[in-house]
Amino acid sequence: MTRRPRVTPDGDGRRRGRPAHPGTLAAVKILVVGTGAREHAITRALSLDPAVTELHAAPGNPGIGALATLHAVDQLDGRAVADLARELTADLVVVGPEAPLVAGVADAVRAAGIPVFGPSGEAARLEGSKAFAKEVMAAAGVPTAEPRVATTVEQAVAAIDELGAPHVVKEDGLAAGKGVVVTDDRQAAIEHARACLAKEGGAVVVEEYLDGPEVSLFVLSDGTDVVPLVPAQDFKRALDDDQGPNTGGMGAYTPLPWAPAGLVEEVLETVARPTVAEMARRGTPFVGVLYCGLALTSKGVRVVEFNARFGDPETQVVLARLRTPLAGVLLAAATGALGALPPLEWSDEAAVTVVVASQGYPAQPRTGDVIEGLGDADAVPHVHVLHAGTAVDDEGRVVSAGGRVLSVTATGADLAQAREAAYAGVARITLDGSQHRSDIALKAASV
Ligand code: AMP
Ligand code: GLY
C-alpha cells in the first residue's frame, strides 16, 4: 500500500523562522525505516528541513503518514527496503529501530550504493549482544559495570552470589528494554537468569550494580568522527517514583540542569571516541548514532548500556531542541563527512515528553482501543503528539496497536513550562485503560 501524504513537507508552516541550511544541500529524498514515536520525531524534524523535498516511511504509522508517504514494506527485510530505496531514488535511508539494524538492513541498503544512517549488522552487535558490548568496552578501556557472562544456571548463580546485591541480570540479546532485572531479591535474580537461559542459545550478563543518576547521550558517528547531541534523561520504570517493571521508556526531558559541567566532553573522551576507534580497528566501523546509556556513579561515569540507534523516547525531546536542519546532519554521518559539519545549533528551550501506554504494558499490553482527543492535544500551544503504537481501524478510527501508544511532547521556556504543556496535552487524550507516569521531569523542574 502506498498512501499519499496529507501534509507535504512544504505545507508545514512550522518551518518558518528556521535558520538557513548550512552548505548547499538541496532536494533531498529520504526514506525512514521504523514504526515508532522515535521515527515520527525523526520524520517530523526532517519535514521541517527546507532541503527535504520528499519523505517516505517503511512501514511508518498513522502519525508518520501525515508527513510522509507510507510503504507497506517489512522493516526487517533488507532486500525489500533496499529495493524500495532504489525505486524512490532516495538520497538517504534512516533506519530507526534496533531490530532491522541487527538484521542487517543497513548493510543491504549500503550494498545498493545508497547512503544509510545506521550501523551494519556487525556494528549493531554493540546493542544486539550485551556480552559483545562488554568485550568492546574492555578492549577500548571504556568504564562500565564489571560483568560476568553466564550460559548455564550454575554459572549465573555463582555470578549473582559473587557480585552480591543489588543484583543486575540482563538477557544477552535484544529485549526492547525489558530483559533487565535489577533486584535485591536473590531468588528473583536467579529466576530471571533461568528464564533467559531457557531460550535457545540463551546467555545472561550478570553485573555489578551502578548507583547514581542515569543520562542518555546520543553521539553521531561517521565511522571516524563523532558529534554529540544534547544529553537527556529517560524514565525506564513503569510507575511513578521509579517503581514497577522496566519498560522501553515512559518519558524523557532535556536539558539536565543538574548534570555536571563538562559531562559531554568527558563522555566523548572516555566512552564515545574509544568505542568508535575500537569498532574501526576491528574493521566494523560504527556509522549512525551510538546511544551511550550512562550512570553518573560515585566513582565516575560508567556505561550502563550501548544502543546502536536513537533512543525512544529521548529522541522526541532531543530533536525538539535541534535547530540545525536534520537531513544534512544525518547525511554527513552516513557519508563520512561529520568532520566538515558546522557545530550543531540548539534551542535554549526545554522539552518534555510523556508516554501514554496501553493497559497492561509492559507485561501484556491491550490493543485495539479507540484513541480520542489527538487533535485537541496537538492544539495545545507548544505541544505535538507523536504516534508510537497506533493503527487505523476499518472504520477509519485511530486505535492503540502496541504497548507504548503515544509520546506527547512539548517545549517551553524551562522544564516546568514544558512539563505543564506536555501534561495538558496528555489530559486531552482519551484511551480506555491507558497509563502514564505523572512525574516525568518533576524533580529536574525544581532544580
Ligand atoms: P539496559 O537495558 O542495560 O539499559 O538496562 C535497563 C535499565 O536497567 C537501565 O536503564 C538501568 O536503569 C537498569 N540497569 C541496568 N544495568 C544496571 C546496573 N549495572 N546497575 C544499576 N542499574 C542498572
Ligand atoms: N529509552 C531507552 C531506549 O531507547 O533504549
Automatic annotation (TrEMBL):
Pathway annotation: Purine metabolism; IMP biosynthesis via de novo pathway; N(1)-(5-phospho-D-ribosyl)glycinamide from 5-phospho-alpha-D-ribose 1-diphosphate: step 2/2
Keywords: ATP-binding, Ligase, Nucleotide-binding, Purine biosynthesis
Chain segments carrying region Disordered: 1-21
Organism field: Cellulomonas persica
Catalytic activity: 5-phospho-beta-D-ribosylamine + glycine + ATP = N(1)-(5-phospho-beta-D-ribosyl)glycinamide + ADP + phosphate + H(+)
Cofactor: Mg(2+); Mn(2+)
Entry's Gene Ontology molecular function annotations: ATP binding; metal ion binding; phosphoribosylamine-glycine ligase activity
Protein name: Phosphoribosylamine--glycine ligase
Family as reported in the entry's similarity comment: Belongs to the GARS family.
InterPro entries in the record: ATP-grasp, ATP_grasp_subdomain_1, PreATP-grasp_dom_sf, PRibGlycinamid_synth_ATP-grasp, PRibGlycinamide_synth, PRibGlycinamide_synth_C-dom, PRibGlycinamide_synth_C_sf, PRibGlycinamide_synth_CS
Organism classification: Bacteria, Bacillati, Actinomycetota, Actinomycetes, Micrococcales
Gene (UniProt): purD
Domain ATP-grasp: residue ranges: 134-335
Highest taxon above the source species: Bacteria
GO terms, biological process: 'de novo' IMP biosynthetic process; purine nucleobase biosynthetic process
Top-level EC class: ligase
EC number: 6.3.4.13
